[in-house]
Amino acid sequence: MAVRKLKPNTPGQRHKVARSFDEVTTSSPEKSLLVKQKRTGGRNDRGKMTIRHVGGGHKQRYRIIDFKRNKFGIPAKVSTIEYDPNRTAYIALLNYVDGEKRYIVSPEGLKVGMELLSGDKAPINVGNSLPLSNIPLGTLIHNIELRPGQGGILVRSAGSYAQLMAKDGKYATIKLASGEIRQILMTCLATIGTVSNSQNQLQVSGKAGRSRWQGRRPRVRSTVMNPVDHPMGGGEGKHSGGIPRSKNGIPAKGYKTRNKKKASDKYIIERRKKK
C-alpha cells in the first residue's frame, strides 16, 4: 500500500497525506455481510456520557469478519479486496466452493483470484490459517487465537505481525510486535503473513473536520480546565496541573493498572519493551 501527498490547493490539503487505495478492488461491500451500526455518542443506556470525545461522524455499517477461520478443508477464492471503515487494515471477501461468502482481515500480498485454505493440511502460504503446531519456526503470523476456537484476537491491526519463535510441549512461543514474548497453546489457529495497509501510520489528517467525520470530538488539555472539570484544572496562569492523572483521578505516566494476580501472567515470558 502506498500513500499520496496532496497538492496544497486548500489549507486543509496542504499537509494531508492520504491512502492511495491501490490494493482496493471494489467500492461496494457484500450486502449479506453488513450489519447496521447505531452510534452512541459516548452515552450509556441512561444518556450519561461515559466516554469523552465521541460523537457525530459519518454513518457506517459493520462488516462481519471471520476471525475464527473454521471452515476446515474447504478451499475459497479471493473475490475482492475492500476498505473497511471500522478497522485500519483492508478486508478480503472469500467465496467458498460450497457457496458461502466470508470476510477476513486481508494480509499483505493477497491478490484477487488466490485460493485460501484453513486446517491442518493447508500449505504455508499467505492468508492460509493453520494450528501453531503446523507452522514452521520463524514464520510471520497474524490473527492469533489465545484459546482454541475463540477466534483470532491478537495481531489484527494494519501492518502488524508476530513471529513464531519456538515450540515446547503443549505451547508455542510467540514474539509480538510490542516486544512481548508469550506462550500460546499449539492447538490455537494463526494466519500466515503480515496484516495489510502497513503504511497506515503515515497518514496525516490535514484538518480538524476529518476527525469529526470519523466521530472524534475535540480534545482539550486538562491543565486549561477548571477544577470542577478535571483534577489537573485550575491554578493561576500556565499552571503545570500537578500529578498527571485522568479525569477519574487515576495516575498516568508509569502507574501500573494491570492486575498483579492476573492468571495469564504465567504465560508471559518477557514483558513488552518500555518506551
Key descriptive features of the protein:
7-stranded antiparallel sheet, mainly beta, 275 residues, 4-stranded antiparallel sheet
What would you say about this model in short?
With 275 residues, this protein is an all-beta fold.
Helix content percent band: under 10%
Please state roughly what percent of the residues sit in beta strands, choosing from under 5%, 5-15%, 15-25%, 25-35%, 35-45% or over 45%: 15-25%
How does the overall form come out from the CA principal axes?
A: globular
Q: Fill in the CATH topology.
A: OB fold (Dihydrolipoamide Acetyltransferase, E2P)
Number of helices: 1
Give a written overview of the molecule:
The protein has 275 residues and is mostly beta strands. The protein has a single domain (3-201), classed as Beta Barrel (OB fold (Dihydrolipoamide Acetyltransferase, E2P)), CATH 2.40.50.140. The chain has one helix at 208-213; strands at 3-5, 17-19, 34-36, 61-63, 76-82, 91-96, 101-105, 115-116, 129-131, 140-142, 162-168, 171-175, 181-185, 189-192, 268-270. The longest helix has 6 residues, at 208-213.
List the helices and strands and how they pair.
Elements: E1 3-5, E2 17-19, E3 34-36, E4 61-63, E5 76-82, E6 91-96, E7 101-105, E8 115-116, E9 129-131, E10 140-142, E11 162-168, E12 171-175, E13 181-185, E14 189-192, H1 208-213, E15 268-270
Antiparallel strand pairs: 1-2, 3-4, 5-6, 5-8, 6-7, 9-14, 10-11, 10-14, 11-12, 12-13, 13-15
